[in-house]
Design a protein that fits this description.
This protein is an alpha/beta fold and 556 residues long. The protein has helices spanning 25-34, 43-52, 61-71, 82-89, 135-142, 175-185, 204-218, 257-267, 269-272, 281-285, 290-293, 307-312, 324-344, 364-367, 383-391, 439-442, and strands at 2-8, 12-18, 113-118, 147-154, 161-163, 173-174, 194-200, 243-247, 296-301, 319-323, 346-350, 373-376, 400-402, 427-437, 456-463, 470-473, 484-493, 500-507, 515-523, 530-537, 543-555. It has 2 domains: 2-95 and 424-555, C2 domain (Immunoglobulin-like), CATH 2.60.40; 110-249 and 289-408, Phosphatidylinositol (PI) phosphodiesterase (TIM Barrel), CATH 3.20.20. The chain is built from 16 helices and 21 strands. Strands 6-5-4-7-8-9-10-11-12-3-13 form an 11-stranded mixed β-sheet. The protein has a 4-stranded antiparallel β-sheet with strand order 17-14-21-20. It has a 4-stranded antiparallel β-sheet with strand order 16-15-18-19. It is a peripheral membrane protein.
Length: 556
């Protein structure tokens, strides 16, 4: 037991006693049940608890013994008492809410996966005037991002290549610096393939120079197919440790400055609109750098005419790019065609051009139609980025998440999944919020309230298809650094495979906006049942050192 003193108007002190809570009644009951009424839990009893209560059927006696050694007091020779058991349940390394290893089938074509994708990966801030740098690229790779986007432009002397957001006030960074940093950090978080998408505004000579740079820097890490076009994409497993290039087949550099400006503005459509690109690839490829074209594994493009025709085009697999607005509009009339397209081809969705502050959109706009590359501004912190981070906590955080089978398969009459159709409830997720801890270690005494301990509550939400969206929240626990809620919520789910569980702690503030106390977002399909320690993150998505919730999950 401890106490916190708060000085009010420099006149007098308010003293608050701080008591860390003990195990909740549900934890005490489970301990008693699996310890057979004894005062300690043996290794065999712990193993039975892990299998039956926690659903950890793959745990072995070795795992159980390791937990015993790490969780019990030093002076205890064997077993866990109730408080040791409680300490173990709060240990997120041993008792995490989701699976920590890669466990999806990684041998399917790339088109069968959602891929962790960045947009304008070189920007440090807004889209108009921030610096371009390799630092945000490095940070993205350290978080597990698997698609990095670079915009390539000639420098002022037109003898070298810069990475810059064209026609803005952003300051450039050299391509060679970006490539070297990509090579160094490409596989620090994930061994699965890294894809570099290029927005190319180069002359044929500079295209050749870019190809030479990529070949020299990446060496054997660089993968490129032996044929000009692929009928099926290779698998993430077959491409482990390799770097792939995705861009449009190169275009000729037109001598007319006036025409060149217009063409480059169309090239910049990835940022500003979905203007059709009307230049013939066959015509322009003749004057392009062959060594550059040879490096392209995933051929890309934007709609040149009717979007439905693009979606139905057969032949070699490719990548199509649509803005978030273009996708929403197309989905109103051609939703089934979009889903069919993404079963073999890759669809990239990017933020609309008016997001000048590098904000993001709701990623389910793309995921529900099978879009593999939902491109995000990784510096655009907020709920949308939390959703993105949550999705890619799945599958061991490797940056590739296998799409649900209903987005890959067709029915007997060529029918496909329809995100707009309300389906029957498939399962119900039961969530119980017991308690929270760690704020007194990670925050100062007055970070939340100047004159008293914080008043915490928890928001528990489901993000997914429209029918599954739900928001719940606990009561407010006043003046307590160690809040105990002990509240339960039910979430009926029609498409649990695409659902995310968003958890956010807020501090109730009657005079202004409630203070932020931590958040996390978890893929529902990965949730483990039973008591779970749920670590919280800051607003950027970085894990807080000590803050966590004790929760309970069950599917029915």
């Amino acid at each position: 037991m401890a106490s916190h003193n708060y000085k009010v108007f420099s006149c007098f002190n308010r003293k608050f006693t701080v008591t860390e809570p003990g195990p909740p009644p549900d934890v005490q009951k489970a301990f008693s049940e699996f310890a057979d009424g004894a005062s300690s839990l043996s290794g065999d009893q712990l193993l039975r608890f892990l299998a039956k209560h926690q659903g950890e059927v793959d745990c072995t006696a070795v795992d159980s013994e390791r937990i015993l050694q790490q969780s019990r007091k030093e002076d205890r020779e064997s077993g866990l008492d109730l408080h040791d058991f409680f300490r173990f349940l709060l240990h997120d390394d041993f008792n995490s809410p989701i699976k920590s290893q890669v466990h999806h089938d990684m041998t399917a074509p790339l088109s069968h996966y959602f891929i962790y994708t960045g947009h304008n990966s070189y920007l440090t801030g807004n889209q108009l005037s921030s610096d371009c740098s390799d630092v945000p690229i490095i940070k993205a790779l350290q978080r597990g991002v698997r698609v990095i986007e670079l915009d390539l432009w000639p420098n002022s002397d037109e003898d070298d290549i810069e990475v810059v957001h064209g026609r803005t006030l952003t300051t450039p960074v050299s391509l060679i610096q970006c490539l070297k940093s990509i090579k160094e950090y490409a596989f620090v978080k994930s061994h699965y393939p890294l894809i570099i998408t290029l927005e190319d505004h180069l002359t044929p000579d500079l295209q050749a120079k870019a190809a030479e740079m990529a070949t020299q820097v990446f060496g054997e890490l660089l993968y490129y197919p032996q044929t000009d076009s692929l009928m099926e994409f290779p698998s993430p497993e077959s491409l482990k440790g390799r770097i792939l290039i995705s861009t449009k087949p190169p275009k000729e550099f037109l001598e007319s400055k006036e025409y060149d400006d217009k063409d480059n503005e169309k090239e910049s459509a990835d940022e500003l609109s979905s203007l059709p690109d009307q230049t013939s690839e066959q015509e322009t490829d003749d004057k392009s750098a062959p060594e550059y074209k040879h490096l392209i594994t995933i051929h890309a493009g934007k709609p040149k005419g009717d979007i439905q025709d693009e979606l139905k085009a057969a032949g070699a697999v490719r990548r199509l790019s649509l803005s978030e607005q273009a996708l929403e509009k197309a989905s109103e009339s051609y939703g089934a065609d979009i889903v069919r397209f993404t079963q073999n081809n890759i669809l990239r969705v990017y933020p609309k051009g008016t997001r000048l502050n590098s904000s993001n959109y709701k990623p389910h706009i793309g995921w529900t139609y099978g879009a593999q590359m939902v491109a995000f501004n990784m510096q655009g912190y907020g709920k949308s980025l939390w959703y993105m981070q949550g999705m890619f906590r799945a599958n061991g955080r490797c940056g590739y998440v296998k799409k649900p089978e209903f987005l890959i398969e067709k029915g007997p009459h060529n029918e496909v999944f329809d995100p707009r159709r309300t389906l029957p409830v498939k399962k119900t997720l039961k969530v119980k919020v017991y308690m929270g801890t760690g704020w007194s270690l990670d925050f100062s005494q007055t970070d939340f309230d100047t004159y008293s301990p914080p008043d915490f509550y928890v928001k528990v939400c489901i993000v997914g298809v429209p029918a599954d969206m739900a928001k719940k929240k606990t009561s407010v626990i006043s003046n307590n650094w160690f809040p105990v809620w002990d509240e339960e919520f039910d979430f009926p789910l029609t498409v649990p495979e695409l659902a995310l569980l968003r958890i956010e702690v807020r501090e109730n503030d009657k005079s202004q906006k409630d203070d932020f106390g931590g958040q996390t977002c978890l893929p529902v399909s990965e949730l483990k049942s039973g008591f779970r320690s749920v670590p919280l993150h800051d607003e950027k998505g970085d894990k807080l050192k000590s803050v966590k919730l004790l929760m309970w999950f069950q599917f029915r």
